TrEMBL record:
InterPro entries: 7tm6_olfct_rcpt. The lineage of its organism: Eukaryota, Metazoa, Ecdysozoa, Arthropoda, Hexapoda. One of its GO terms (molecular function) is olfactory receptor activity. Keywords: Cell membrane, Membrane, Olfaction, Receptor, Sensory transduction, Transducer, Transmembrane, Transmembrane helix. It comes from the Eukaryota. The chain crosses the membrane at residues 37-55, 67-88, 131-159, 179-208, 275-293, 305-325. The keyword Isomerase does not apply. Coiled coil: none annotated. Its main location: membrane. This is Odorant receptor. Belongs to the insect chemoreceptor superfamily. Heteromeric odorant receptor channel (TC 1.A.69) family. One of its GO terms (biological process) is signal transduction. One of its GO terms (cellular component) is plasma membrane. It is found in: Cell membrane.
Length: 400
């Protein structure tokens, strides 16, 4: 579908927080300008250089396991950032189509109760978005303070000599690190902030889509539950009207259910490659950062402890939230079977009973968000990801 300017503005106003987030990265599909390529190039340039100067450390350091783990524990999350950003930049039409579908769905709601259901799930997604933003901003501030601690202490509590200044990550800029400490620190922190910001913007945009789909399943559930509320027999004429009304209600529920399924499949089909690479890299990165955390605790390195806790926690939180949303979709799909089963079918004629039986048969099989036949987005899927990460972590530890 193609939206006019008023409808596009309506999407931006209704989902204002996501418009602002995506617009700042120049990936909001309804507002492109002549500076779009320039802004995207800037963000990609920062992220690529951020990763490049980490990988160049392989050229100047002995390739022992500790060094490899230290470098990759930062470089792999950087790769995830670039993959996420690329997924939205290269799929502008798809992102636009997703937002248009979200907008058009609101027109399918038939009463205030259904609108209220959709608003509840929209509000939940916005709450999680604001929570993630707060956590990320706080984490970046904490990490930045620890990295700049020698400079801060030199100002507050000066000594006779300058405290050692170094970034607690293996970097190689091929310049004098002491003479150019501030430019290196600024580049490092800017790259880190942009990377975290990209993850938040893209992830929360995908989450609001999943939450919207959950709302559609809930609306379908509501329509089935209340499809027979007014079903009463008075005479043959009224009975025919009731049957037609009942069938319309059930058909509307089936339509919204099918719409939700189609939205899920469209999202998975178009982002499956990006999801696959992010999943593989994410599990590997989590394993390496768990090892970093263990080593930091053993050596009592305070900065490394804080850094590895922030990175590890970020992996866990994002993995859990995505799998939680996937589990929610599976649960809501299953509830449709229960709703159809609990309808007062015993007051309906055989024709309607067969229709209800069809709905129950079509929802008997659970629906899952299957990511490349590799993992299912669910609580069980989250536990499998964590188990894999811990297994790889144990393997790495055994090699030392």
């Amino acid at each position: 579908m193609s939206l006019n300017r008023r409808e596009r503005d309506s999407i931006g106003n209704q989902y204002k927080i996501y418009r602002i987030l995506l617009l700042s990265l120049s990936v909001w599909p309804f507002q492109q300008s002549k500076y779009t390529i320039l802004i995207r190039s800037f963000h990609f340039g920062i992220m690529i250089s951020f990763t490049f100067f980490q990988l160049t450390s392989f050229l100047t350091n002995e390739l022992v396991l500790d060094v490899v783990i230290m470098i990759l524990s930062y470089a792999l999350p950087s790769c995830i950032c670039m993959i996420q950003y690329h997924s939205f930049c290269s799929n502008s039409y798809i992102v636009k189509r997703i937002w248009e579908d979200i907008y058009s769905t609101w027109n399918l709601m038939r009463n205030e109760t259904e609108h209220k259901i959709m608003r509840q799930y929209k509000a939940k997604a916005e709450y999680h978005t604001k929570l993630f933003l707060t956590i990320i901003i706080s984490s970046c501030i904490i990490y930045g303070i620890f990295e700049a601690m020698p400079v801060i202490l030199d100002i507050i509590l000066p000594l006779n000599k300058t405290r050692p200044r170094e970034i607690h990550a293996l970097l190689e800029y091929f310049i004098d690190k002491d003479a150019y400490f501030f430019p290196i620190l600024c580049h490092w922190l800017i790259g880190l902030i942009i990377g975290c910001y990209v993850i938040i913007c893209v992830t929360t945009s995908l989450l609001v889509c999943l939450q919207h789909i959950s709302g559609l399943f809930k609306v379908a559930n509501y329509r089935i539950e209340h499809s027979a509320d007014d079903y009463v027999f008075y005479n043959s004429t009224q009975e025919n009207n009731r049957i037609e009304n009942f069938i319309r209600n059930i058909s509307a529920a089936v339509d919204i259910h099918q719409t939700a399924i189609e939205r899920c499949e469209y999202l998975l089909d178009n982002f499956i490659k990006h999801f696959f690479f992010m999943l593989v890299i994410g599990v590997t990165s989590l394993s390496l950062n768990l090892f970093r955390l263990l080593k930091a605790i053993i050596t009592l390195d305070e900065v490394e402890i804080v850094s590895s806790i922030l990175f590890t926690s970020g992996h866990f939180v994002i993995m859990f939230v995505i799998n939680y949303y996937g589990q929610q979709i599976t649960d809501y799909h299953s509830e449709i079977f229960t709703a159809a089963y609990n309808v007062r079918w015993y007051v309906t004629p055989v024709k309607i009973q067969k229709l209800l039986l069809f709905i129950m048969q079509s929802t008997t099989k659970a629906y899952y968000l299957n990511i490349g036949n590799l993992i299912v987005a669910s609580i069980e899927g989250f536990s499998k990801l964590v188990s894999m990460a811990i297994s790889y972590f144990t393997l790495i530890y055994s090699l030392l």
